[in-house]
Every structure is written in C-alpha cells, then in structure tokens.
Amino acid sequence: MIIILKETKRKKKRFSRKDEIIRQATIMFKDRGYSGASVRDLAQLSGIEAPSLYSHFKSKEDILQRICDEMAKKFMKGLAKSEKKESATEKLKTALKLHIRTITKNTDASAVMWNEWKHLKGQGRTEFKKKIRNYEKRFQYILKEGMDNGEFVYYNPVILSKLIFSSLNGLSFWYHGNNKNIGINKNLQKLLFQGIKNQD
Amino acid sequence: MIIILKETKRKKKRFSRKDEIIRQATIMFKDRGYSGASVRDLAQLSGIEAPSLYSHFKSKEDILQRICDEMAKKFMKGLAKSEKKESATEKLKTALKLHIRTITKNTDASAVMWNEWKHLKGQGRTEFKKKIRNYEKRFQYILKEGMDNGEFVYYNPVILSKLIFSSLNGLSFWYHGNNKNIGINKNLQKLLFQGIKNQD
DNA sequence: CCTACCGATCGGTAGG
DNA sequence: CCTACCGATCGGTAGG
Question: Residue A187 burial by CB count (10 A; 0-12/13-18/19+): exposed, middle or buried?
C-alpha cells in the first residue's frame, strides 16, 4: 500500500516537472525566440540544472517539436468538429470560434507554433508542415463550398484563408487576460462575416 | 577631376557594400530569427570577413535597429499621406493601400520589423516602440473618426486596428513575387470594407 | 537529478 | 578591409 502510494507520487512529480519545463520553454521561446532561449536559462527557471533537462527531452529541438505538435493537434481537433456541421456558414462560424478559442486559451504556445516552427528539422519538421498544410486546405475547402453554393461571396479562397489566419493568429500577440471581455469572437465574426456572407 | 571621380567611386562602393550587408541581414533575420543569424554567416554572404562588419556597423543589434527604423519610417510616411485625405473612408482606404504597398515592396524587412524588433535594447528600442504606438494610435483615430460621423459601423477601435494590422502584416510571410497579380489590395479592401463601412 | 566537462560557436576587439 | 585572437556562452555527454 505504501509502495503504491510512493510510486504514484513519484510518477506524478516527474510528470509535473516535465510539464513545468514545457511551460517555461513556451514562454521563453515566445519572448526570446527559439535561438535566443538557452537551455541553461530554461533549466534554471524550471528549478533544475541544465544537463537534467536531457533526462526529460532528447534535445532542445525536441521540446519545440512537442509544443508545435500539441498545438497542431488542438487546432486539428477544432476543425474536425466544425466539419461536422451542416452548412458552410455554420462550418466556418464554428471553425473561427474554435480556432480563436484555441489561441486565446493557449496564447504563448500558439505564438510559438506559428513563429518558431521554422526551427524544426528533419522528419518532425516535414510532418508538422504537412499537418498545417492539411489544416489550411480543409479550411479553404469550407470557403470554397460556401462560395460554390452561394452562401459566400466569391473571393480567391487561398488569399481569403491566408488573410483570416493572419488576423486570427495575430491574436496570440495582443490578446491577454485583461482584455478577455471585449468580445473578440463577436467582433471578429461580425467583421469577417460582413465581408464574406452573401447578402442576397 | 580624376581625384573627384575616385572619391565618388570609393564612396559608392562603400555604400553599396553596406547596403548589401543590410540586404543579407534582412533575409537572414527573417529566415533564422535574429538570434539564429550569426555575424559570421552574415559576413560570408556579404563577401567579407566577420570582423569587417564592424567597420560598417557598431554591433549586430545596430543592423537590426537600422532595418526596423527604416521600415518604421516608410510606414509613417504612408500614414501621413493618408491623413491628408478628406473623409475617414478615403483616409482608411489610402492607409490600407499604402500599408499593403509598403509590405509587398519590402516583404523581408517588414517581417523582420514586426517579428524581431523585440531583440532591440536600450534607447533604440524605446524610440522604436514609441513610433509603432504612435502609428497605431493615429490609425485608430481614423477608425474612430469614421465611427463617430457615421461612415463606419461601430467596433472597438483597438480590437479593430489590431485585427487589421494582423491580417496585413501576415502578408509579409505569404506574399511572394509569384502571387503578385492576384489582387491582394482589392480582395482586402473588399473584405474589410464590407465589414467596416456603414451600409445605410 | 547532479557534478564535471566537452568542442563548437558566439559577438566582438586589437592592431594594422 | 584583413589576420589573429578574446572571454563568454552555446547545446550536449559521461558517469554516477
């Protein structure tokens, strides 16, 4: 009984240390950029010595990869949910809402993903890029669907999706806890939908 | 006569080398981030040895500062021009057009300015931030003006300006020479103005 | 998770 | 604009 308790406790402690490192790394990568963040400073903020990081992660890049992969997964999940809706309008509305929610609930990690993924290398990089490309393609597909069936005004879907993603992803830099109640989602939906929706 | 010619030539050569360093630095800072770009690689791409950089610039940060300051100047110039227009609608239309033009004509430098300015330090940093803040405030003032006199629908001007800037500044990452003719400006004006203009 | 330590590379200076 | 060189710091390993 005592042994089990100890095991549980030890496991718990190890996992939270790992999470703490990721949490600190996310903040550092955002503020100083991936290259500007040193493993020594990261270790110190996490309460351990630098070499101890390597019992949790195989490299500095490994940490970045995990941050990017986890965020990509969250964005994908939101999009999959929106694709289940009936109309293109509802799909787009939901996709926007969930994309915004993912960002505002993870501002630092979102900023790191969109701005620091370029430091990824090898297979991890390739797979990450594939995921993001897939996300964009599926988003564009929703736009196309709405344009084809007359729900939306016609735009170049690639340009439109790029513009939308830019405006949304910028959120990760200026959205803070203290402007939580200014109706980002409502303002954005209003602004974008006025331009996108077919008013006939 | 010969002496003057030589002087001119020498000056010209020195200036073009300096410009070449800035040009290469802009590309490197964008691709690898400020911290990820080494002065050695920068020197090599510019065709000189690393220590020779320091006869043109007093530090690595000095190069970044010049890139940021020059771009800030270009953005300010466009805004000043738009403020001379009569109506808020015309001001906004011109401000958007010139902001877009500044970005598409300087994609790399724009990306560096918006993403790497955080590496600036000391007085240069303070002054740069002041300029950007001023730019945003004046842009927001145009929005407010249009909302007050009924030209625009009411939004929170701060949110609206942040959203607009995000969508525009994202251009520096996906706009390339090969999508020059897809009507970015027209698409953007259409998208944003539908949401902003009062349709009464 | 630590101490001890590594080679490589960093931005930058001296002196010409 | 170069050669020669600096101390500091980088990401990471060995071994416990």
Answer: middle
- Residue B47's nearest nucleotide, by CA–C1', is D1
Instruction: Report the percentage of chain A scoring pLDDT > 90.
Output: 79
The answer for residues whose C-beta is within 8 angstroms of residue B153's C-beta and 6 or more apart is A194, B147, B195, B196, B197, B198
Question: pLDDT tier at A189 (50, 70, 90 boundaries)?
Answer: confident
Q: What structural domains and CATH numbers belong to chain B?
A: 15-57 (1.10.10.60), 61-194 (1.10.357.10)
Q: Does A198 touch chain B (CB under 8 A)?
A: no
Beta carbons within 10 angstroms of residue A192's beta carbon = 24
Please name the member of B35, B188, B191 whose beta carbon is closest to the beta carbon of A36: B35
Q: Does B156 touch chain A (CB under 8 A)?
A: yes
Q: How far apart are CA A150 and CA A81, in angstroms?
A: 23
Asked if residue A151 has pLDDT above 90, the reply is yes
pTM: 0.92
> Does residue A91 reach within 7 angstroms of strand D, measured from its CB?
no
Does at least one atom of strand D sit less than 7 Å from the CB of A60?
yes
- Which residue would you say has higher pLDDT here, A188 or B98? B98
Three-state secondary-structure class, residue B197: strand
pLDDT at position A107, please? 97
CB atoms within 10 A of CB B71: 22
Task: Give phi and psi for A120, each to the nearest 5.
Answer: -70, 150
In terms of pLDDT, which residue wins out, A176 or B74?
B74
In sequence order, what DSSP letters do the residues of A25-94 get, joined into one string?
Answer: HHHHHHHH-TTTS-HHHHHHHHTS-GGGGGGT-S-HHHHHHHHHHHHHHHHHHHHHHHTTSSSHHHHHHH
Higher confidence at residue A186 or residue A173?
A173
Is residue A149 scored above 50 in pLDDT? Answer: yes
